[in-house]
Amino acid sequence: MDPDVIVVGAGPVGMTAAALLHRAGVTVRILERQTKRPQNPRAATIHPRTLEVLDALPAAHGSNTHGHRATLGAQLAAAGTPMPATHFAALPSLLSYERLDTSYPFVLMCPQPITERVLAEHLTGAGVAIETGVEIVDVDQDDDGIVVHDTNHRAHRARYVIGADGAHSAVRHATDITFPGTTATLAGFGADGVLDRLPERRHQWDPVRGSLSVLTFPNGLHRVFGIEPSETNLADEDARRRQAHVPDVEEIKATLRRVAGDDFGLHDVVWTGRTGDVTRHADRYRSGRILLAGDAAHVHFPAGGQGLNVGVQDAANLAWKLAAEIAGWAPDRLVRGAQSYDAERRPVGEQLASNTQAQSAVMHTFSPSGAALRDLMSELIAQDGDTAEHLRGWLSGLSVRYPAPGTTPGEEHPRAGTRVPDLPLSDGRTLHPALRPDVLTLVSIGAIVPPSLLSKVPGDRLQLLHSVRSWGDAAGALVRPDGYTAAVWDHVTDPELIAQTARSWVATTQT
Ligand SMILES: Cc1cc2nc3c(=O)[nH]c(=O)nc-3n(C[C@H](O)[C@H](O)[C@H](O)COP(=O)(O)OP(=O)(O)OC[C@H]3O[C@@H](n4cnc5c(N)ncnc54)[C@H](O)[C@@H]3O)c2cc1C
User: Which InterPro entries did the record assign (predicted)?
Assistant: First the structure.
């Protein structure tokens, strides 16, 4: 039988989408062109919101978990190295995560192959096979469904397809979705290996010599990355030509000596590569039954470790809405209106593009004015005021906010559309693992809510949980399956109002 959804691409985003859809009861196939998982470390930085999102999924049986939590987020956290602070634009002043209201108040150093292994093992445990060696070349769609075609002339049918097939997405190419943006202007260097000694400063920058950053991975490896001034301000063709040349170990060591005066005894190198700053963003995330997520929808300079993180959060926003659409309970505004996947996530993609471009400007303006800009930014971050708060909120993923329905911007409740922290519940659980993909959750936070209210929402699509911790002044919050508030009340005096709001998120007629 044809599945509901075909996910093209078993990268971190495709696997997260498939896992969340499966959990929501959607039948899913994952088609992946590669037969062996790449060991290229790429994403090393996992931010708190990504781990929170993965708390919606159970940990593999018997796995090590962070604290007492048996969730995939906790399992991944246990597989990496937590660091108390992260950087913006490789500036010397760091952004501390230690005071964040999250179960994961740290930035996790975790090479991408480990993240992918954890997700792949979860899928296997859940009985979802990743079909490897299947390369998709085209997609057709009509009113009833989609057909994806592979290089072996086979046709695979489903009701929907998610293109999570990376920057050069064949799924995106098969649609009328465009991918506008800016071309390459630079060619940075990077390598993962063992360092005999560490530089005094993790991030160093010099207007003449260039920049170098060093990250530490859980397995004793280090990542070195940076750029020489001569590799910036390039014409597109030149930048691409230089990016195409992958430096060998000796070239990387020579570059380190030029930039930092030492190669730090780099050895046992597992990867060398180039970084680029092509920034492109899909003009739509949906075309009919075809949806895009992750790098298939947005590419950018890899600054601050964000591509995988934002992509996983795309998947979390998409999965419950598509599941609701398939099950027939999604109101129109979840499918194509103001609360749709496209409407909520494309602004986040825009912000991702501009944030990484801003970081690139701060990192790559090798001149006295660039140095002055860095000093200024670093000073503002060190003050730990509004600037630090804003950047921390963005990088951690915790400040993403979706416009609340039916409210005028600026007049909505300050917590409307925000993500709810992992509040402890009266039944001993915490909120994030207790959220369900197919129901809204009414969290009473001190307010008395009559359980009879549940029967006023069709299809049993409301559960009631009681927080034993306060959350600002909120007395109650209606929480979506992806952990964002649909509505927040300071006083819960009228249960009928809550029921009405909850009903507005549930289509009463099957589509
Ligand atoms: C050097 C570097 C460092 C980075 N560091 C970070 C970081 O610290 N933090 C962070 O968040 N991000 C980082 N990123 C970005 C991150 O690696 C990507 O954003 C992330 O891999 C995107 O995941 P994805 O699943 O969307 O796409 P991908 O990881 O590209 O996965 C796409 C999958 O689709 C498959 N596929 C492609 N085409 C087809 C087809 N036609 N048919 C079938 N399958 C197909 C591919 O084989 C692949 O498995 C970094 C990137 C680089 C290059």
Answer: FAD-bd, FAD/NAD-bd_sf, RIFMO-like
